[in-house]
Automatic annotation (TrEMBL):
Residues spanning the membrane: none
Keyword Thylakoid tagged: no
InterPro entries: D-isomer_DH_NAD-bd, NAD(P)-bd_dom_sf
Protein name: D-2-hydroxyacid dehydrogenase
Residue ranges occupied by any D-isomer specific 2-hydroxyacid dehydrogenase NAD-binding domain in the UniProt entry: 114-284
Keywords (A to Z) from UniProt: NAD, Oxidoreductase
Organism the protein comes from: Roseovarius faecimaris
GO molecular function: NAD binding; oxidoreductase activity
């Protein structure tokens, strides 16, 4: 019986054509709507699902996927799996595309940091005023401390670039072991002792029960008043009320926020009015070529699946990554 693959994406046609060219014997169905999945899954009975969740849309159709007619393998096109409900790993294998966008996300982190250390806003204001300020100074990254909360693919990419700037790098992970580009790897439970050491904090952990609200009012109170926080994790990891208060009060100096508990960010959200924060629409991982790379990882894994070989990037439902 032919392998049956379902592609869920807002624009599935290019992905369908690429799969058909690579594996002509595979039976392919596509879907561009969450709602349609409830009827399509039991009718098509896919063996495999390649799924890209739609940004800003709730209601991911996990119910039919976990039913008797659902796939044996769900390949998530992004890195996060918090849109899925807990699954039974004895029946369903879930993989993600972690690592595909890590370099781009690390560039976002340092682009945001350099925006402030080079005072790009101040330079733009001086230019608009035709003002030449010979007393202006830059702020070097050399010798500063980067704290990375979560040393997954993205955290490691940030660490590598931080060392290129000759920064000191501290990172946390659930199971601390020595890692390249990281001067000190600590357990997540050590964070209360680490906030005060950081000049820059990068948050890059998945959203789990253990990480929800991880960066809270106590964390901001412990940080340096000159510190900057960059959040490329998931909405919910950083306590937004505490963050807004910290930025307004001067408890920390700056922030760059790419993720929010509610997306799109409502027009009445206080984050819009923060003059010392960069806001972006959950796009730090979005770049020209992302979809090609993510689907390429899926195709490589599909070859493994058909050959009975272990898949890459299997997600542990208990850990969430």
């Amino acid at each position: 019986m032919s392998l049956r693959v379902l592609i869920l994406d807002s624009d599935p046609a290019p992905l369908r054509d690429r799969l058909a060219e690579a594996m002509p014997d595979v039976v392919i169905e596509t879907c561009d709507s969450y709602a349609a999945m409830h009827d399509l899954v039991p009718a098509f009975k896919p063996d495999v699902l390649y799924s890209v969740s739609f940004a800003g849309r709730a209601g991911y159709p996990w119910q039919p996927l976990y039913g008797a007619d659902g796939p044996k393998w769900i390949s998530v096109g992004g890195s996060g799996v918090d849109h899925l409900e807990p699954w039974d790993p004895s029946r369903i294998t879930v993989t993600n595309s972690a690592g595909v966008a890590s370099a781009m996300m690390a560039e976002y982190v340092f682009g945001s940091i350099l925006h402030y250390t080079l005072d790009i806003d101040g330079l733009a204001a001086d230019k608009a005023a035709r003002r030449w300020d010979p007393a202006r100074e830059m702020q070097p990254l050399q010798g500063k401390t980067m704290l990375i909360v979560g040393l997954g693919h993205t955290g490691q990419a940030v660490a590598q670039r931080a060392k290129a700037f000759e920064m000191s790098v501290i990172g946390t992970r659930a199971r601390p072991v020595p890692m390249e580009h990281v001067d000190e790897v600590r357990a997540s439970d050590d964070l209360p002792q680490l906030w005060e050491q950081a000049d820059f904090v990068t948050v890059s952990v998945p959203l789990l029960p253990s990480t929800r609200g991880l960066v809270d009012a106590r964390a901001f109170a412990a940080m340096k008043p000159s510190a900057m926080l960059v959040d490329v994790s998931r909405g919910g990891v950083v306590d937004q009320d505490a963050l807004v208060n910290a930025l307004r009060s001067g408890a920390i100096a700056h922030a760059a926020l790419d993720v929010f508990p509610e997306e799109p960010l409502p027009e009445d959200s206080p984050q819009w009015g923060l003059e010392n924060a960069i806001l972006s629409p959950h796009c730090s991982a979005v770049f020209d070529g992302w979809a090609t790379r993510s689907f390429g990882l899926f195709l490589d894994n599909l070859e493994r699946w058909r050959a009975g070989e272990p898949l890459q990037n299997i997600v542990d439902p208990a850990r969430g990554y």
